[in-house]
């Protein structure tokens, strides 16, 4: 069942989204060669704590997970696509890092992700990240009243496939509100003009995930959480929480 949010609720979700935007900005600024993933998690915790927010990630345990998630960020490095658990690993020159984070403020959740490189960037990584951002922008542009979920999926998939990248099957965006994961699902590939019609008050987490090698295969690492590319190629992830409104898509996690 899809819950339509009121304008007041969307404003409240925007407040949560702005806390999250500050957390991701702080993590990005702190990320450097020699900094550990655990240290980045502490940075995000500090921003949430200062804002009086908590984390919908911490302690989250979906059906596939062997243990509750132990952190407030997912930190996925190089061939890790999503759901990476922060560890003592220290970032190295040239690493590609994807940080996914959530914030919950006054009962409303937000969800967003960024990808970036540390140290000297590889041109191939820059292109991969730029394509992830373009795919996200295309998905947001299609998130308008009267369109359908398939229009968002088609917009994202067209950008990703057009650039020669793979898309991990079965993972994509989702509705969001009081809960981090709500209906509907938002695939990263699909047919236009199909699926649920978009209405004012729907709020979606739109999140393309790209595999550089062009294949779609992935597997779970030994921690049961981290998804890694089967071909060993690098991956990128970009995400925003977006409200569907009569005035067009409203990005609630915009980082300014």
UniProtKB/TrEMBL annotation:
The EC designation for this entry is 3.4.11.18
Q: Please tell me where a divalent metal cation 1 binds in this chain.
A: 100, 111, 239
Alphabetical keyword list: Aminopeptidase, Hydrolase, Metal-binding, Protease
Identify the InterPro entries for this entry. Creatinase/aminopeptidase-like, Pept_M24, Pept_M24_MAP, Pept_M24A_MAP1
Question: How many and how are cofactors bound here?
Answer: Binds 2 divalent metal cations per subunit. Has a high-affinity and a low affinity metal-binding site. The true nature of the physiological cofactor is under debate. The enzyme is active with cobalt, zinc, manganese or divalent iron ions. Most likely, methionine aminopeptidases function as mononuclear Fe(2+)-metalloproteases under physiological conditions, and the catalytically relevant metal-binding site has been assigned to the histidine-containing high-affinity site.
The cofactor required is: Co(2+); Zn(2+); Mn(2+); Fe(2+)
Q: Which sites bind substrate?
A: 83, 181
Per the record, the domain of life is: Bacteria
UniProt KW Metal-binding keyword: yes
Q: Which family does it belong to?
A: Belongs to the peptidase M24A family. Methionine aminopeptidase type 1 subfamily.
Q: Subunit notes for this chain?
A: Monomer.
Purpose of the protein: Removes the N-terminal methionine from nascent proteins. The N-terminal methionine is often cleaved when the second residue in the primary sequence is small and uncharged (Met-Ala-, Cys, Gly, Pro, Ser, Thr, or Val). Requires deformylation of the N(alpha)-formylated initiator methionine before it can be hydrolyzed.
Q: What is this protein called?
A: Methionine aminopeptidase
């Amino acid at each position: 069942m899809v819950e339509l949010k009121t304008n007041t609720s969307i404003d409240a979700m925007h407040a949560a989204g702005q806390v999250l935007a500050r957390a991701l900005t702080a993590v990005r600024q702190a990320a450097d060669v020699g900094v550990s993933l655990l240290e980045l998690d502490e940075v995000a915790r500090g921003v949430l704590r200062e804002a009086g927010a908590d984390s919908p990630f911490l302690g989250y345990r979906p059906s596939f997970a062997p243990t509750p998630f132990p952190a407030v960020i997912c930190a996925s490095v190089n061939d890790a696509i999503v759901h990476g658990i922060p560890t003592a690993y220290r970032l190295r020159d040239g690493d590609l890092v994807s940080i996914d984070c959530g914030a919950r403020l006054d009962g409303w959740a937000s969800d967003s992700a960024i990808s970036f490189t540390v140290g000297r960037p590889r041109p191939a990584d820059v292109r991969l990240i730029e394509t992830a951002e373009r795919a996200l922008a295309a998905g947001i542009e299609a998130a308008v009243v009267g369109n359908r979920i398939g229009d968002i999926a088609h917009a994202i998939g067209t950008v990703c496939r057009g650039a020669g990248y793979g898309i991990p099957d079965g993972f994509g965006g989702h509705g969001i509100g009081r809960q981090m994961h709500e209906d509907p699902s938002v695939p990263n590939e699909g047919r236009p003009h199909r699926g649920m019609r978009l209405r004012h008050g729907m709020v979606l987490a739109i999140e393309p995930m790209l595999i550089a090698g062009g294949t779609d295969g992935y597997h779970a690492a030994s921690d049961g959480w981290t998804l890694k590319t089967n071909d060993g190629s690098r991956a990128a992830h970009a995400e925003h929480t977006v409200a569907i409104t009569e005035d067009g898509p409203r990005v609630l996690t915009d980082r300014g």
